[in-house]
Design brief:
Blueprint: E1 2-3, E2 6-7, H1 18-28, H2 46-54, H3 65-72, H4 81-91, H5 96-127, H6 147-152, H7 165-174, H8 180-199, E3 205-207, E4 213-215, H9 226-254, H10 260-273, H11 275-304, H12 316-319, H13 326-368, H14 374-413, H15 419-432, H16 446-469, H17 476-494, H18 502-518
Antiparallel strand pairs: 1-2, 3-4
Helix pairs in contact: 2-3, 4-5, 7-11, 8-9, 8-13, 9-10, 9-13, 9-14, 11-13, 13-14, 13-16, 14-16, 14-17, 14-18, 17-18
């Protein structure tokens, strides 16, 4: 049968999936113009088909040859909704009615292919005797754009392309081993610990003006030890795990055309869209929280005195010059604050990436709601649940980081001899009333403000994810459990040193948070999810 001078084959409607259907049509040359002798011109090749699709008048962007080549290959790669439209135009020979029929047939065939792919994955997971390692994230040498991005931007040149802070920052989480970033942060904290031993401020006390002997050693400060050795590496590990899952598994399972190159290109575009956010965070963390805070809190008091800040390991040279000299203190605090500001820049980068994952998943999920597949929507729900559990873990760790900062800051103004004795004394005071929270010295405490910013930023990402992704009835119970734990932690943070016995409420919240890190579903589903 011929239409408009081309070979036309009607939709077979035989239940074939996309690969089976496309293989037959390409071999028959459906939609190809007739030869000069009036006979079909022969089968399609990837080059001929890509050229035919790109020559359609209303198709301004054409189609990548690599994408068409994947249709010809024996794999599980399907076809996007946009390309179904153009392929239907080719097979329909430009006839509106025939094109409409082929569009429905190709859509149904793609749905059957996706269903078969999910069945194979499910069967493979049931019979697997060992869990294979997660595929290493796709990387591009010399920080070059993915091929799909380069194809979209012909003017882009790898070596001469402009510097992208967003792309470089995202690479810390998505490229190389997932252990690299957490191990680097831990190593930096360990190095500072060794330096504190060498300078003698690892375990140091001083006599306050009211006669209290107070412990201010570097290793006694949880916001410089436990935070950077445990909480922040865990945060980076969970962000990396979630990001790698989304880029290499979750996103590929949800997009209509499971093409790794195109998926990476779309993700890179999403990261670049937030480039101003990365620069804003870099400016705040490095210039203000790092440089200016170091000058105001450490350098100026060490050089000129004053400042009305509580004495800690960073200003020990003022009250204990026999332990550490002022030049040594300046160098050590400078290194510590440089390390701190870079770590917290990466912390906020992690939050931006979590937001990007949520937004990307929400957009794909909304697009999928118009699709006919119930099974596909079930797969979307599974990805949503895994993403929300990962974000919950990161939120818990973010609030715990802020708690470490505020607890240390509050301890420095209290009458506790060391931070452990202070917390234990507060717990006991809830029963005997022996602690007066007003009995503390009024100091400037910039850490209270910075820790509050961390709580707000972390919770905003969690709330955004809950609103965008947690609307399904299936997620109501798990989401309420996660939200309750986060709310309890935030309340515990806000009430630090606000009343006698605050540490009891804080301890309950921390215990629930630790359980949530181990089992974010709180008994619903597998712990690993």
């Amino acid at each position: 049968m011929f239409k408009n001078g081309k070979l036309f084959l009607p939709p077979p409607r035989d239940g074939s999936d996309f690969k089976e259907l496309f293989k037959r049509l390409a071999a028959a040359g459906a939609g190809r113009p007739l030869g000069k002798d009036g006979f079909p011109a022969g089968p399609w090749t990837p080059e001929l088909l890509a050229e035919a699709i790109s020559q359609i008048d209303s198709n301004r962007i054409g189609v990548d040859l690599r994408t068409v080549q994947l249709w010809f290959q024996e794999n599980d790669k399907g076809i996007s909704a946009a390309n179904i439209r153009w392929l239907a135009r080719v097979f329909g020979c430009g006839d509106p009615a025939a094109t409409s029929e082929w569009q429905m047939e190709l859509s149904a065939a793609q749905s059957r292919l996706a269903a078969k792919r999910r069945e194979r994955k499910s069967a493979a997971s049931d019979v697997a005797v060992a869990v294979p390692d997660m595929a290493r994230p796709t990387t591009f040498e010399d920080d070059s754009d993915p091929p799909a991005e380069l194809a979209r931007d012909p003017d882009a040149k790898g070596p001469g392309r402009r510097f992208s802070l967003a792309r470089r920052s995202e690479a810390f989480f998505s490229r190389g081993s997932p252990l690299n970033l957490p191990a680097s942060v831990f190593a930096g904290a360990a190095a500072l610990g060794f330096l504190s031993y060498m300078t003698g401020i690892h375990d140091a006390t001083y006599v306050r003006a009211d006669g209290l002997v107070k412990q201010v050693g570097f290793l006694w400060a949880p916001n410089w030890t436990f935070l950077f050795m445990v909480l922040l590496p865990l945060f980076f590990a969970f962000v990396t795990e979630l990001l790698v899952f989304w880029k290499n598994e979750g996103r590929l399972n949800l997009v209509a055309e499971a093409d790794q190159v195109k998926s990476d290109g779309a993700w890179a575009h999403n990261v670049e869209a937030s480039s101003y956010s990365y620069w804003a965070v870099f400016l705040i963390c490095v210039v203000f929280a790092g440089l200016f805070q170091w000058i105001g809190v450490c350098l100026m008091p060490l050089m000129k005195g004053g400042g009305n800040y509580p004495t800690d390991w960073g200003k020990l040279a003022i009250v204990r010059p026999e332990v550490i000299s002022v030049p040594e203190e300046v160098v050590f605090t400078g290194l510590a604050y440089l390390y701190m500001c870079l770590c917290f820049y990466l912390f906020f980068v992690g939050l931006i990436l979590l937001y990007t994952v949520v937004h990307d998943l929400w957009r794909i999920g909304v697009a999928s709601k118009s699709g006919p597949e119930v099974d596909y929507q079930h797969e979307v729900n599974e990805v949503v649940l895994k993403v929300m559990r990962g974000i919950f873990r990161c939120t818990v760790l973010g609030v715990l980081i802020a708690i470490c900062m505020k607890v240390q800051s509050a301890y420095l103004t209290s009458r506790g001899e060391n931070i452990v004795a202070w917390l234990v004394g507060d717990m006991s005071s809830a029963f005997n009333g022996g602690n007066d929270v007003s009995d503390r010295i009024a100091y400037r405490m910039p850490t209270h403000y910075s820790s509050f910013l961390i709580v707000i930023s972390t919770c905003v990402v969690f709330v955004y994810g809950s609103i965008r992704l947690g609307v399904g009835s299936r997620f109501q119970v798990p989401l309420w459990k996660m939200s309750a734990v986060v709310a309890l932690l935030v309340v515990g943070y806000l009430l630090i040193d606000a009343f006698a016995g605050f540490s009891i409420l804080l301890g309950v919240g921390v215990l629930l948070a630790i359980y949530g890190l181990i089992d974010p579903g709180f008994g619903d589903g597998e712990r690993a999810n």
